[in-house]
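Lab notebook, bench 4. Still working through the backlog of constructs that have no structural model yet. Next entry is a single chain of 320 residues. Request: give me the structure tokens for it.
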Amino acid sequence: MRMKWPPALAELLEAPRATARLQPPDIARWRAGNSLPGVWTFDSGMAGAHCCIVALTHGNEFAGAILLDRLLREGLRPLRGRLTLIFANLDAFSRFEPEDPTASRFLEEDLNRLWDMATLEGPRRSAELRRARALRPVLDSADVILDLHSMLWPSDPLFLVGGPQDSVRLAMELAEPALVVADHGHQTGRRLIDYGLFAVPGSGRRSVLLEAGWHWEAETVQRMEAATRRLLALLGLVPGPVPALPRPRLALVTETIAAETADFTFTQPWRGGTVVPRRGTIIAQDGERAIRTPHDDCMLVMPSLITSPGHTAVRLARIE
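Model written out:
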């Protein structure tokens, strides 16, 4: 059944859906993989970094799968090091329906909230946990992860990174999109970019999540491709010069707001990337609790205009 959105939010969603230029890719030929189902690894035989490009962490975010399909079809191979292309949540993607585009985000639980050791090595079972456990050996051998995502709500495209400065510096070098947001994840579970040694400063591992734009836009795939090819060039896995780009903005998350009640509502349909100039501005109401900006020039990072108790509603950030 198609989800019923409140009228104002339905209007926001209908525009991209009506003009959608993206269709889910046919990835049947890639499902078997050459190392694991949905995982393609190419080793140059020469010393170098192992880079993992991950798509379909969420089954309804198929722009990244379009890119991986394109790279596989063109026969991309690394000049040195190793390149791994991962279609992460194949089973959820198989259930994608355009009439209810959020329903196939996952089957049983969010694959991007499972990456802490207690969960991965604990007794719990789900379709997503089985997949995460299967992918661990590949990810454990990676030096760099680029996790490709798209967005449901209107927002400026951005890179998300965790705490380690090596990952922040990598995102700043990628530089396009021109916004890097550093935060510490979600209350509801650890993200892939925060897995294991990727969250340890000085480990030499680097991880970046790209939020490339709306689910439905061809430009989202274009941003993913530009960032991926630039990353591979920076690592020396593909040839060519890496052109200099203007330094992106860096925003440090100062507060992550999770909904406490089922009555969480924003004061308006805020666009992600909006900078609210004055401290103390009310941006949302959570039951009887008013959500106010904690400082001047407060950036709203990826507000989720419909949320549920315990889930992240918005991140508040200070521009450096």
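Notes after review: Confidence is low (pLDDT under 50) at residues 1-6, 15-19. The chain has seven helices and 14 strands. Flag for follow-up if needed.
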